Amino acid sequence: MSYSVGQVAAFAGVTVRTLHHYDKAGLLSPSERSPAGYRLYGEADLVRLQQILFYRELGFPLDEIAAILEGPDVTPLERLRARQRQLSEEIARLQRLAEVAERAIEVQRTGVAMSPQERFEVFGEITFDLSYATEAELKWAESEGRREAMARATAHTKEDWRRLMGEASAWRAELLDAFDEGEPSNGERAMDLAEEHRLHISRWFTSCPPDMHRRIADDFVADPRAFALLVPPSQQRPGLAAYTRRAVHANAARHAGGRADTEEDA
């Protein structure tokens, strides 16, 4: 028995346009023609269509479906297993994103409400990039320190944030002075500034041992969005992020009783 394009589209739950696309792509071409020249699908065509729709539902692209149906070196079972792994990884990623969204909702619900003017007064030019915040949440999702930092940040009052940002602003001015005056990144002044920053994190967010501080500082160079939370772009200088990172690493080495493996700045 044979079926027209419209009939197949109706009982397969696809559009005629989709069937035409499959035909044009060489994925599913009707094997019969009516006396009037119309395309007709036979039983074998319907079986093939069912397979195509099955793989499409699993997210396989059309070219990969074609390879599966043409009897490739990789068996359908192997491809299904590979797709299962991909879907499991995607489910895990989406679950983490859902958790990030849930935390963001909680922050919005319980966080300190500020008008735009108040927010500018408190945070100044420091802005929080949502994409960076999301990536950081995923990167440090298993970190107890990250969870503590988020919890404490959520609990801060408006006055807490004023004091916190005031400390950060004063520290930033000292960092810029040290950099502009050519202080070496592994000198006492720069290392003391790095230590102040480490203690600032511990005081306001979470315990920050030197090793954790090094990892935080590595992001200053790896991701401009991270350093922008420390020094707004309008105040940055070429090489400042790397200078700050070297100072943090030098201070961590000082804590460990060793000598910093960092070059002095010219």
UniProtKB/TrEMBL annotation:
Q: Which domain of life is it from?
A: Bacteria
* Residue stretches spanning the membrane: none
CDD domains to which the protein is assigned, alphabetical = HTH_TipAL-Mta
Q: Which organism is it from?
A: Streptomyces ardesiacus
Q: Give the HTH merR-type domain ranges.
A: 1-71
Keywords attached to this entry:
Activator, Coiled coil, DNA-binding, Transcription, Transcription regulation
Question: Where do the coiled-coil regions begin and end?
Answer: 77-104
The record's listing under Pfam families reads: MerR_1, TipAS
InterPro entries named among the record's database cross-references: DNA-bd_dom_put_sf, MerR-type_HTH_dom, MerR_fam, TipA-like_antibiotic-bd, TipAS_dom
| Protein name listed in UniProt | MerR family transcriptional regulator
